[in-house]
Design a protein that fits this description.
The protein folds into two domains: 7-154, 3-Layer(aba) Sandwich (Rossmann fold), CATH 3.40.50.720; 171-259, Orthogonal Bundle (ProC C-terminal domain-like fold). 50% of the residues lie in helices and 13% in strands. It contains eleven helices and eight strands. The chain has an eight-stranded mixed beta sheet, with helices on both faces. The protein is elongated. It binds NADP nicotinamide-adenine-dinucleotide phosphate (NAP). Residues 10-11, 13-17, 38-41, 56, 69-72, 74, 78, 90-92, 112-115, 167, 169 line the site of NADP nicotinamide-adenine-dinucleotide phosphate. NADP nicotinamide-adenine-dinucleotide phosphate (NAP) is lined by residues 10-11, 13-17, 38-41, 56, 69-72, 74, 78, 90-92, 112-115, 167, 169.
Amino acid sequence: MSGKARIGIIGGAGWLGGSIAEAILRSGLTDPDNLTLSYRRSRPDRFAASHWTTDNQFLADRSDVVIFSVRPEDWGSVPVNLERKLVISVMAGVRISALMEKHASERVVRALPNAAAEVSFSFTPWMASASVDADDRILVRKIFGACGVEDEVNSEADIDYLTGMSGTGPAFPALLAAAMMKHAITQGLPAEVAQRAVLTMLIGTGRLLERHKDSPTEIVNRFLEYRGVTAAGIEEMRASGFDDAVSRGLAAAFKKSVSMGGTS
Ligand SMILES: NC(=O)c1ccc[n+]([C@@H]2O[C@H](COP(=O)([O-])OP(=O)(O)OC[C@H]3O[C@@H](n4cnc5c(N)ncnc54)[C@H](OP(=O)(O)O)[C@@H]3O)[C@@H](O)[C@H]2O)c1
C-alpha cells in the first residue's frame, strides 16, 4: 500500500469509531479525503471534510482498510463484502473466524482498544489472521499507535481477557475514585474538594508510574515498608477483601466478554 491509507470506519459516528477517526487524522496516517465513515441514524457534524455514508458497501469499495466499530449485537445485521480488504474489528467478543467467514476476507485483525483512544491513551491488544502480512501489521501498529499503546498478543483468549480488563478503560479506576469520594463526603468534605482530590490523584498516579516505570506491586510494597498512614489504609482494604473483590470483578467481566458477539 503506497501513499496515504484509504480507511473506512463502519460505525464512525459512535464513541470509539469517532475517537479512532480523530486519532488517525491527527497522526496524518490518512487524510480527510481518504477517510470514509458510516452512520445509521443521524449524520454527525464532525469530520466534515471526510466522506459520510449510510451505505457500508460503498464505504468498503472506496477503502483498503475497513474498521468495524458497531456494537456486537448490531454486527450480524451488517452484510458487507470485504473481499481483498484488510478488516479490523474492535468489537468485543467477535471472533476472527466469524469475521473471515461473514465478510469473505482472509486478512482480519481483532483488536480491543478502550475509551481513552479519545485522548490517544488507549491500550490496544490485537491479533491477526495468518494471511495478514508484514505491511498490514505495520499499518495496524500505526492505527492503534495513533490511539495510544498497542500490543500484538498470541491468542484470542488474551483478547477476551483484556476486553474485561484494559478494554474497560477508565471504569475500574473511576470505581475506586467514586468509592473514595463517597467516603470523603460522608466525612464532611465538600463534594467539589473531594472530586478535585481524587481526580488529581488519579492523573498524578498515572504520570508518576509512567515516569518511574515501577510496577504497581513495587509501589504498594514501598508504601507498606514505610509503615505510615498509607500502609494502615492498604492493610485494612486488603483485610476487607479488596484483592478478592477485584479478582471476582475481572472474572465476571471476562465471562461477559466471551459471551458477547454470539460467538460462544
Ligand atoms: N467504547 C468503548 O470504550 C469500547 C472499548 C472497547 C471496544 N469497544 C467496541 O467498539 C464497538 C463500538 O462501541 P461504541 O462504544 O463506540 O458504541 P456506540 O457509541 O454505540 O457506536 C456504535 C455506532 O455504530 C452505529 N451503527 C450501528 N449499526 C450501523 C450500521 N449498520 N451502519 C453504520 N453504523 C452503524 C451506531 O449508530 P446509531 O447510533 O445510529 O445506532 C453507533 O453510532 C463495540 O463493538 C464495542 O464492543 C468499545
